[in-house]
Every structure is written in C-alpha cells, then in structure tokens.
Specification:
Blueprint lengths: L1 H12 L15 H9 L6 E5 L4 H12 L3 E5 L3 H6 L6 H10 L4 E3 L6 H11 L3 E4 L6 H6 L1 H22 L5 E6 L12 E3 L4 E3 L20 H21 L3 E6 L1 E3 L11 H11 L3 E4 L6 E6 H13 L5 E5 L6 E3 H12 L5 E4 L9 E2 L4 H6 L9 H18 L1
Parallel strand pairs: 1-2, 1-4, 2-3, 4-5, 5-8, 8-12, 9-11, 10-14, 11-15
Antiparallel strand pairs: 6-7, 11-13
C-alpha cells in the first residue's frame, strides 16, 4: 500500500495523471503490475480510546484526510468516573459525522481480542490513547489502572510487532512520568502563579529530565511502564514508535470531571454555577495547555516521517501556560460569571506545582509543526461545547 501511495504521489508531482495509464497500452507483466498498484488506495489507521478527547480528534482529523479509521473504545471512562465521564455521546457523534468510521467495542486488556483485530486490520498507523487517566482513582483501583495503562499498551505493541511492525505506533503518554521531581526546581511565587526561578527552565522541561527517584502516583507509575515499553519496542525491535508526554490536553470533546480534565471541568463548573475545589499550592499551580487539534497534527507529522523509540514533551509551552487562579479570571471574562470555588489545603499526591513543556525537540525534529490554538481559543471552544451539550440534554 505504501509503495502505491508513494508512486501516485511521484506521478502527481511530475504532472502525470494515473488515469492515462490504460492496460491496452502496456502488454508486459511489469507495466500491468504498475497499473494495478497505481489504483486509488485508502490508508487505514487504528486509534484506541477513540471516544476520548485525543482519540476522537484523531478520528476526525484522519477521516477528513481520507484515511479509513478504526476506533477501539468500550467506554471505560464511564466505569471509572460515572455518568459525568461517559463518552457514549462522543461515540455516537463520530458514527453520525463519519459514516465510514469503524467502531470496535473492545477492552484493551483483552489480549486475544487485540491480537485478532490487529491481524485482521494490519493498519498503516496506530495511535494508542486509551488510558486510566486519574491519580486518585489509580490509588483505589491499582490493578485496573496498571492493566489498562501498562498491560493494555503492551498488548497493542506486541500485536503490532507480530502483524504490522512497519506501521508507526504513537503512544499518548503523560508528563507524570517525571513524578514530582519537577517540584524540586527552584520556584518564585508571583501574584497569581508559581514560576521557575531557575532560568534553565525558562522555556520548560526537556525530555532529558529524570524519570525515577520521585513520587509518581500509581497512575504515573503505570504510564511510565507503558512509556518505557514503547521506547523499548522501538529500540529493541526497530519499530517506528514514540511516546508523547502530554501536559494538559484540552479541547471541546472532553468529558471533564473533578478527577481528570482540568480545563473542561473548570469551565463546566463556571457555566453551571458549581463549586470548583482547589487542591493546595494556593491555587497558583501552573499547567501548559495544548489543544487536541495541535496534538493530532503532531501525530500526523510523526506518522509521515517516523523515528524509532522517541519521546516528546507535548504541551502548550510557556505561551499557553496558566494557573488555576488565572484560569478563573479568564473564564469569568469570557462567560461573565464569577467562579465559585473553595480551597483544600492538601495538594494531590505527586501533583506538579509548575509544569511547562519545552517544545524545542518537537520543533527541531518536525519544524513545520507548531501551536495554532491559544488559550482564549481553547477556553471559548470548551465553553461552547458544554453549552451545546447542555441544550441537547
């Protein structure tokens, strides 16, 4: 399939129309074969967690780009977080919007099921976003957390190795693989945020930052196991893999809850007049936020020119960083509603005080990629999505 696509692209660049190749013009087997492989083909992509924020963005982006997209999702988020975390609405939206989208109701822990699906599909690319995403929930359901995050990732890696080892494998990791080690960086306290006092980190944390000898939370630990496994399949088996260590991932199609989905949940609380609980650090903790669209366009760049066993810190960078107190101010300015909140002195275990992703490596490897959605755009899109969902309820 890849050869055919490359050949079609070469012919297009040369100004040649493949339609002009008629079988009667060529009698040899060689040219008959050439004609066969230049017929239009559609690349296929498999995405796990396809009803979640990033997974659904993958479905949308690649479907619109002409790929055949297969999604794996069994609404575990509804299990983890209850009705407010349910993603069935998003599954239905994707089915309606993209009739050619193929939804597979499959648990990532089902090793035999994963193996059978990869053997059947042999996709040209795999994007693995399925996860248990909460620090707090991991502590109460440690086996579920590890089996989904670590074992589920291994299931797909091994199935890919056996059935389509040449296909790029993009894994959605997390900045929590660094544990709470970023809290050791010298900080300065400003009026409404913490910031780095050490100029070394002015542009954020690089991929070379240490990943051990710190408190990760059980969630961070299971994601770290998956992250290293993704690297190892690239380095040991020579597969085209990467782990994207996400900062705060945001966008309109997230079902944010208190335990996961910072901006989505905060904006929902503002619209509904609910009280938002701030956990420690005076509400000045900082996150860099990246829109799901910008995450997926980076995935597209990697798939087009993959590398082996890479890791990237993917976030909004300094320009898209914001503290909780600053987020209160921004959503209030947008909605006209004051933010209702209360303060809890105890911070979450393993939580970062200030985390900003350094994007230099990403931009160095893929210089045509960049952030296209600023914070105000992200806030407005999330707000509008919650309004639409409330009207449809």
């Amino acid at each position: 399939m890849g050869c055919a696509v490359d050949l079609v692209m070469c012919l297009d660049l040369a100004g040649l129309a493949t339609e002009s190749l008629y079988i009667e013009d060529f009698r040899s087997d060689v040219f008959s074969a050439l004609l066969l492989i230049t017929q239009p083909t559609m690349k296929s992509l498999l995405v796990t967690g396809s009803s979640g924020l990033i997974g659904s963005e993958v479905v949308t982006h690649f479907s619109e780009a002409g790929w055949t997209v297969h999604g794996v999702d069994n609404n575990m988020r509804g299990d983890f977080f209850g009705p407010r975390g349910d993603t069935r609405w998003n599954t239905q939206r994707l089915k309606t919007q993209f009739p050619a989208f193929h939804h597979h109701e499959l648990d990532v822990r089902d090793r035999a099921g994963v193996q059978a699906l990869l053997k059947e599909l042999r996709p040209a690319a795999i994007v693995h976003t399925a996860a248990q995403p909460s620090h707090d929930l991991a502590a109460s359901r440690p086996f579920d957390d590890f089996e989904v995050n670590a074992v589920g990732t291994l299931n797909f890696l091994e199935a890919a190795r056996l059935n389509c080892p040449e296909s790029p494998f993009v894994h959605m990791s997390t900045n929590k693989v660094y544990g709470d080690a970023p809290n050791e960086i010298a900080l300065q306290e400003l009026e409404k945020r913490w910031d780095y006092a050490d100029s070394t980190y002015q542009d954020g944390i690089r991929e070379s930052f240490r990943i051990d000898q710190s408190k990760h939370s059980l969630f961070g630990t299971s994601k770290l196991a998956a992250d290293v496994m993704v690297q190892e399949y690239g380095r040991y088996f020579g597969m085209p893999t990467c782990a994207l260590r996400g900062g705060c991932l945001a966008g309109p199609n997230q079902s944010g809850v208190e335990l996961h989905g910072f901006l989505s949940y905060l904006i929902r609380c503002n619209l509904e007049g609910r009280t938002y609980r701030v956990f420690g650090y005076k509400g000045k903790q900082v996150r860099d936020n990246i829109h799901s669209h910008d995450v997926v366009t980076f995935m597209e760049h990697f798939i087009a020119a993959p590398r082996q066993g890479e890791v990237y810190n993917i976030g909004g960078g300094r320009d898209n960083s914001i503290s909780i107190l600053e987020a209160f101010d921004l959503i209030t300015a947008i909605s006209g509603k004051e933010m209702q909140h209360e303060y809890v002195e105890q911070n979450r275990q393993g939580d970062h005080i200030c985390y900003i992703s350094n994007l230099d490596k990403m931009k160095g490897h893929y210089p045509s990629w960049g952030i296209t959605k600023d914070l105000e755009t992200i806030f407005k899109e999330i707000q509008q999505s919650w309004l639409v969902r409330a009207q449809a309820a």
